[in-house]
Structures are given as C-alpha cells and as structure tokens.
Amino acid sequence: MSEDLTRRGFARGTVLAVLAGGAAFLVKKANGQVVWQVNAARCINSRLGEVGVEACNLCTTECVVALSAVRAVNEYAKCGRCNICPAYFNITSAVNELGQPSEKLCPRDAIARKPIGKVDPEDPANNFYEYIIDEEKCDGCGKCVMKCKEPLGLGSITLRIRYDKCVNCNRCSIARACPQNALLQLPVGQAL
Amino acid sequence: MSRVPEALGRACVLLVLLAHSALAQAIPYQRPVDTAPQANSIGGGYKVPPVQKPLPRDYWLQVVDAVALSAAMGVSVWLVLKRRSRKWLTALTIGSLAYFGFYREGCICPIGSLQNVVVALADPKYSIPMLVTATFVLPLVVALYFGRAFCGGVCALGAIQELVVLKPVQVPRRLDRALGLLKYVYLGLAILFAVKPALTRDFLICRFDPFVGFFRRNGAPHMLILGGGFLVLGMFVGRPYCRYLCPYGGLLAWCTRLARRGVTVTPNKELDCGLCAEACPYGAIEKMRAVRRNCLYCARCYASCPCDGELAHAKAGLVDLPGAAS
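Predict the joint structure of the above. Result:
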C-alpha cells in the first residue's frame, strides 16, 4: 500500500515536472497575442480595380459571431462627403422629386446621412454630408465598400474587424472561406 | 490529336487568369486622399468625427479569466470533497455555464487549448499566448491532485450537458468502455490535424464543438442540430460528449490515475444499498467503489447516500421535529 502510494507520488511528480517544463518552454517562446485583420488591399470589396462586380458577403455568412465580427468602417477624414453618395444611395434606382435616387443601398439601413452646416437648397451639389455607419447594425456585407471607390467614390469605407466582437478563433472561418486570402493573423500591436 | 490544342487552350486560359489575379493582387490599395474635403475646407467649425476602433479584450481581463478558472476549480474541489453538496455544485455549474459559456462565448477553453499547445510544440514560429498555456495546464495539475474537478461544475461544455441529465440509463459496462476509446481516436485526429503546416492546419476540436453555437447564439445549422442531438441524447445517457468524445477528458483521465484524493465511496457492511451506483449517471461507481478516472465530480452519489450528504441531513432534521417525537 505504502509502496503503491510512493510510486504514485513519484509518477505524479514526474508528470508535474513534464507539465512545468512544457509550460516554461511555451511561455518562453510566447510573444504576445495575435488577432485577425482584413487586408484591404486584397479584399475584393475594397481593392481598386474591381468595378461592376457583385459584393462578396462571405464575411457576413461565414463568421461564427452573430451578425459577424466584420463591419464596414468609414474613415471619415478620407470621406468625400458627397451629396449623392454611391455607398449610401442605390444610384441605379429611379430619381425622386428631391433629385436623389429613391432607394438606399444598405440592406440594413445602417448608414446615416447628415448635412454638415447649413443646407443651401439652391445648390445641393455644393453641400457636404456626413455619412456615419452604425456599426451595431452593420453586418459587413460589403455592398457599400464595393461602391465607395472609383469611378465615383474615394474608397473611404473598408471592412474591418471589431475586436470587441471577434472571438479570435484559432482558424478564422472567414479566412478559411475567403477566396482572396484577405484575412491574416497579426500581432496585436501591428493590427491596431 | 485534338487533345493537345485543347490542353494548350486550357493552359492559356489558366495563365491569363493567373496573370489577372496577380495583377489584381499587385495593385496597391491607395486612396486619392487629396480630393476629400478636409475640415478646414468645409469650414464652419466642422470637426471630423472619430473612427470607431473597438479594441480586443484587455490583457488583465484575460488574466481574470485564468484566475476565475482556477478559483472555480478550487470551489468545485471544496464543494465536492469537503461539503459534499450537490446543491451548491449545481449552483457553481450554472455560474460557470453563464460565465465561461454564454458570456465568454466558449472561448478560450482548455479543451481547445490542447491544439494550440500541440501546434506551439510542433511549429517554432507559432506564438501561443501565455494564458492559453495556463488554461491548458491548470486543470491537468488539479487532476493530478484531486481528479477531474474541472469537468464538474467548471467546464461549460460539461455544464450544459450536466443540466439536461433527466432520466439517465446505465450504459452497459462493455459498451461504455468501447465508446470511451473514441475520445483517444479524436485526440489523435486533433493532434494530427494540428501539427500540419500552417496553411493546411485545422483545429478540429473547435470546428466540431457541438455546443459553442448555443453559447454564441449563432452557428452553422448542421452543428446546431448536432448540438441539439447531443443534448437530447444527454437526457438519457449522462454527458455523452464528455464521456465518449472529449479529448481533453482523456488527458484528465490519465492524470486522475495519479490523483492523491478524489470522490470516494466507502462500502458499509450493514448498508450496502448501492443507491450511489444507481445515482451515478456516468457509470463511475464499480463494485461499490468510485472509479476516479470516470468520475465527473457531480456529487450525485453523496446526495443519494442515506448515511451522508443532504439526504442524511434531511433525515436528521426530521428527527428533530418536536411533533415527530410524540
């Protein structure tokens, strides 16, 4: 009995030592957290030269998080603040009495359009408008990203990952599905 | 003869496609920033609104997770071995399910962390966060001393199954043993897929986790159906995923063989009623002895024991009733 106990104790000590050694090895080579990031130069929705293509919505359909952890983000400093924004309006829809396209592009109505300063009704083309994306509503379908580039847009909208929603899967299921290989894992310092 | 031109044609198409994609890749992403109106050209005191940049979970909050894991295991050991309280253990189970399951959305968990550890050992370039290492090691160390305290009341995957156990049947011993080998097959497969080179690597345990879809309130339909199936099966066969598939459970079972303490059932010559063996939904009591490697720390045996636990306390309370004495 006592021999059995000491033998078990020895085995336990050995396993503990192996675990501790392994943990020490892993901790030594650890170099911080990594997070997933969308490479805008590769993403078909945001990269230049992809015009007249249907927006890829794999970021919406493949993500394991409800609504998707990928959202469209408007870099406001780079936004043209256009009167008729091709990402806000569906510019192929019929023109209404205000002289604007009658339909919006976003299927979830996540973009808000707000005039900047005083609106001059005589000269609508010279007014600036602020386009604010409600990131709680956006599911990252990429329709607005696809439209906000040449020939009409300036490319201020890109798809980005909301790190408060992303659960940082070992193998991102969007990355597995993405035909452009646009999702990559980077150290947290480089990604933000 | 016609095959050669056809093949040539195909090769040309392929080349064109390749060139096209290479060109598309080569176009740098740049915006004609200068044409965007800036705050000073807009005037009127306009300020550019800030761009939302939600940050990942703070590092100290991740440390809190690891501390919570250790604390929950400590409480689990104390409740089962010292207090022998099924009631409080159920409370801990619900708490763990709420925190590690529904709040943390099933990430990070020790079960999945075993793949990260394997990858980190195999691939010198792979970086494993320290907390993942801690999450992997802590339950194993606890198992070396006290048995599978992690499985009872801490693991979110176990907790969701623990709470649906309704009318468990005793699985025939041989079938139980044979099915129990499946988890080692799964462990082997998970390791095999994890040690592959970076691009073809896959994390099977995370990908085929049957319950994480419920935790995230979102998931592929086939995985949700599989999870629902496991829960329905779990009403009659206690914790099927834990007993037959969980690869980390296999590692814990190995460590538990060396445990210093664990759930014990003391045979009593006068009262060998076997109620505990009947109460154990996991077939972990054999010949009136608790088999530690199968014991999932649920404390049902203690709760059902007429000599001990809540039943005995309830009886003692009955005797104390003033009306009962007369």
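The first strand of chain B starts at residue 285 and ends at 286.
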